[in-house]
Design goal:
globular, four-stranded antiparallel beta sheet, alpha+beta, 38% strand
């Protein structure tokens, strides 16, 4: 099944999607989106069809509150910088870079 179809239907193996998923833009900054991505890898497709929100919990900690997977928290941090090419431009000619966020110590702190 093609990747786009997997996402639209919420079916198929989640790992292949998570590697290309940045996070839901409505959750806030990229650090918050990275926490959601980490939770998606843990709980799977039901997360994307449920209500969820993020919040800063202090000390660099980000909390994701969800309807179906409970509450999770982690410390997101800047990872590697990756080329951000313009349309139809090869990555090696990219003038800009974007940050790939990583998540440390992701854990569930309250069940659903």
């Amino acid at each position: 099944m093609p990747l786009l179809e997997q996402v639209v239907r919420g079916e198929g193996p989640v790992p292949g999607v998570v590697s290309r998923y940045r996070g839901c833009a409505t959750l806030g900054p990229p650090a918050h989106q990275a926490v959601e991505k980490g939770v998606l890898a843990q709980v799977g497709w039901p997360l994307l069809s449920s209500w969820r929100r993020t919040e800063d919990a202090g000390g660099g900690l980000v909390r994701l509150v969800t309807e179906v997977a409970g509450t999770w928290q982690a410390h997101p941090a800047e990872g590697r910088h990756v080329p951000q090419p313009e349309c139809r431009t090869p990555p090696e000619r990219a003038a800009q870079q974007s940050v790939e966020w990583v998540v440390d110590d992701l854990r569930q702190v309250a069940p659903a």
